[in-house]
Write a structure and sequence with these properties.
Layout (H helix, E strand, L loop, with lengths): L2 H13 L7 H12 L13 E6 L4 E6 L5 E6 L13 H11 L1 E6 L11 H15 L7 E6 L1 H15 L7 E5 L9 H7 L8 H11 L24 E6 L5 H13 L4 E6 L14 H16 L2 H6 L4 H4 L3 E5 L1
Length: about 325
């Protein structure tokens, strides 16, 4: 564990993690911390950022001059907050290294717009990319935390509506289960530097006020059928409260025949890869994300017969 990671976790425990808040207090607190970008943007040369405000898509486009692929990214924020600016550092480096354009999508937030407003809007964002003639084999879907849930739901919706699959997906600490097991929340609560069992419960209540919705696959992707989904990379901290959400989704994807790459690391906090370029672990693991995405380039797959060694099929790495 780097000194940087220790510092990030200490600050996170002090400023974000809370216990025993009611719903109103949770909403106010999470919006105060997630709607303010914690780091300064350090954008590499050659990267342009512009706002998009269209009927189907609102958000940011971060791109190199002549992009060769597209990333659709759904931000985190516990379904109640979050801003795209927080992701400019990560998006700019993905764009630079992959010669890509990154669409950072906004979506309706709870409790003003509870489920299913967010996943429905995220599906519109994917349709928007198809409508502006982005080839699905050159689209990557990604997201973190709540956005990781929306990204996985996006894959289910795309398949269910017979839309063409994207190239692959990258899910960072995804929330996948709105019916979590109490003992697992309690087990990981002490080691998680950001989220508590109480915060998770309140977030579920805010996003899914109708208890009957909580088992729907578009609200809890873990209850969905994963067959026919494109390759997925799962990344999770072994210390975080959503670790089992990611782990169980990974196992279900493998059982459904999905090509999966799994990476878990100890000593880091929830969604640590978004902290590039300030966190050494984030910088290292960004390289893993880049490699995974490159493995599924259409020209690479046409030239080489894929194998577990070359495609990352069902690979698992854990760093303690």
């Amino acid at each position: 564990m780097s000194i940087h990671s220790k510092l990030v976790q200490a600050v996170s425990r002090k400023t974000i993690k809370r216990h025993d808040l009611n719903k109103d207090q949770t909403l106010k607190h999470l919006r105060s911390v997630f709607n303010n970008t914690p780091v300064i943007p350090l954008i590499p040369r050659g990267i342009k950022i512009r706002k998009i405000d269209q009927a189907q898509f609102q958000g940011d486009r971060i791109s190199v001059k002549h992009p060769q692929m597209t990333i659709l990214y759904f931000h985190g924020g516990a379904f109640v907050g979050g801003v795209t600016k927080t992701y400019h550092n990560l998006a700019a480096r993905l764009a630079k290294q992959l010669k890509a354009e990154v669409f950072l999508a906004t979506y309706p937030l709870a409790p003003e717009a509870p489920y299913p407003a967010a996943p429905n809007r995220c599906l519109e964002a994917y349709r928007y990319l198809l409508d502006i003639e982005r080839k699905p084999e050159n689209i990557v879907i990604a997201g973190d935390s709540a956005g990781g849930s929306l990204a996985l739901t996006n894959l289910l919706q795309i398949r269910d509506q017979n839309l063409p699959n994207p190239r692959c997906a990258v899910l960072l600490s995804p929330a996948t289960n709105a019916l979590p097991e109490e003992e697992k929340l309690i087990a990981k609560c002490p080691s998680d530097a950001m989220l508590s069992a109480t915060l998770v419960k309140r977030i579920i209540e805010l996003y899914l006020p109708n208890k009957g919705d909580r088992s729907h696959p578009y609200a809890s992707p873990i209850y969905g059928d994963f067959s026919g989904l494109p390759p997925i990379m799962f990344m999770a901290s072994k210390d975080e409260i959503l670790y089992y959400d990611a782990l169980h989704a990974k196992d279900k994807a493998i059982a459904a025949g999905v090509n999966v790459e799994w990476f878990a690391r100890s000593g880091v906090c929830h969604v640590w890869p978004i902290m590039v370029p300030f966190l050494p672990e984030a910088n290292k693991d960004l390289k893993r994300i880049i490699r995974f995405i490159r493995q599924y380039q259409p020209d690479v797959l046409k030239l080489n017969q894929p194998s577990p060694e070359t495609t990352g099929l069902n690979t698992a790495i854990t760093i303690n």
